[in-house]
Automatic annotation (TrEMBL):
Native species: Halarchaeum salinum
Keywords, alphabetical: Hydrolase, Metal-binding, Zinc
Necessary cofactors: Zn(2+)
Annotated GO MF terms: hydrolase activity; metal ion binding
Protein name per UniProt: MBL fold metallo-hydrolase
SUPFAM superfamilies: Metallo-hydrolase/oxidoreductase
Domain Metallo-beta-lactamase: from-to ranges: 13-171
PANTHER family the record matches: HYDROXYACYLGLUTATHIONE HYDROLASE GLOC (PTHR46233:SF3)
Amino acid sequence: MITNCSAGVAAFTANVFLVTGERTVLVDAGANYDVVSAVREHVDDLDAVVLTHTHPDHVENVPALREAFGIETWGFDPAREHVDHGIADGGTVQLGDHDYEALHTPGHKDDHLVLLSSAAGVGFAGDLVFAGGSFGRTDLEEGDASALVESIERLHAALDGRGIETLYTGHGPTIDDPVADVASSLRAARFAR
């Protein structure tokens, strides 16, 4: 089961997805709200936090989660603050009951990851793409419009034949038609470059 623990929060934060099952994991930690209470509304314990990237709106709640649950975090670059363990490009991480493949997708931020599971039919896109054909901004530090286009191209190719039915995004609603929406995001990002 996947639950957005930041749904309805009226603060600037990222979506924070609780994935329950054999391994109970948060995808991103959010910022500016009591994520510990939000998690405890659904589960008593947490096994890990997996970060799509380390922008503040995705990681500021990591210290509170570490204190409350004694967890460690996983992300692309363990040299970054808030990342205890690295997930390599092409590596896997278990979320709930399924293994997810990590795709390194820089452009929005150098350490950005997308996570995909054919078995679950689910992906976590972070801030690479959004519903309605939008895409992550590149005007922040480490942003790179050309790299972002390449990363969206990579995601679009990775979706081919994989059976991903839902992409959970770092902000806004989920993507229920990943192939079409990512194709739209790719066209828009190419045009904006």
